[in-house]
Specification:
Rossmann fold; 16 strands; about 375 residues; about 40% helix; single chain; 6-stranded parallel beta sheet
Amino acid sequence: MRVALFSETFLPKVDGIAGTLCRLLEHLSRRGVESVLFAPAGGPARWAGTEVVGLPGHAFPLYPELTLVPPYAEVGERLARFAPDLVHTLHPVSLGLAGLWHARRLGVPAIASYHTDVPGFAARWGLGLAASTLWAFQRWVHRRASLTLAPSRATQRELGEQGIGPVRLWGRGVDTERFNPRWRSAAVREWLSDGCPDAPLLLYVGRLSPEKRVEWLRPVLDALPHARLAVVGDGPSRAALEELLVATPTVFTGWLAGDALAAAYASADVFVFPGANETFGNAVLEAMASGLPVVAPRAGGVLDFVADGANGMLFEAEDPGALLVAVRRLLADPGLARRLARRARLDARRRTWASCLDDLLAIYVDVLVAAAERRAA
């Protein structure tokens, strides 16, 4: 099987799409699947044996960290030379359109995976009209694919309600060796707690932007003055959040990766995640694998793996007071926190990358078989 991938983002940018894509390329190599990746320039020339074709683009004004490669990028000759059996576009917006167009030109099936709830972000930013326009654009894009893939059941339902289909589920995994309670570190906890390692330590990991609602953690800290907060990540809201939380016991670390990120998870006490627009919630699953009780909204992709009162705490998604109640309960009941953490770790271990990526390969085969049957008919 020969698969051409088109992604709007890749390394050195750190986000869920890039992380998933790295895992996918490594898995394709292990399974003997030949692949090529078209992505914005600036990343490695190869990853796990896959050639990465870097293409020039421009920074997106509303999201400067994102480089958009135009849909008229010159990829046709290189794609034809590779002769793919299948094209997979990851959250097609601009470059992905080129992938879909050239797949049709070459007569090969194309699938599109949906990764980020951009219309939901727009609605949360108060741009309701923009959200409607973005959904219309998504419908137009996904009609050009044979199949759409959703990372969670909640996202699968939402796409169906928006008239996008057919949609199949392609979940995500977690590396439970990388994210593991054994990486707990006294030195890291000293750093994250700003020198107060005996205080309860709350942890947030993720992008710092309006839709993540990290500002909801300020009332939590006000009500629980004995607690500390570590914020791991970066983004356009960082300066405003640092100003908001300046008088609180909060440490901002910036982005962490590898061993440093694993140790940060394992060295905290409770993982707090206020954002309600997650199509999956990779950071929540990483926290669970690291042996943390998690507090997350009753919304979005986290509902696929967080069970309220069993392996985590869910709060009503639009009620910041409910977030405080859940955190307060965990800090007041260490026995409950330990029980949730143990179950979280056990449940995370069932979600392996190998399993979810083999599921994707099975979907690839189904799409190829269906395309062959259509040609025969």
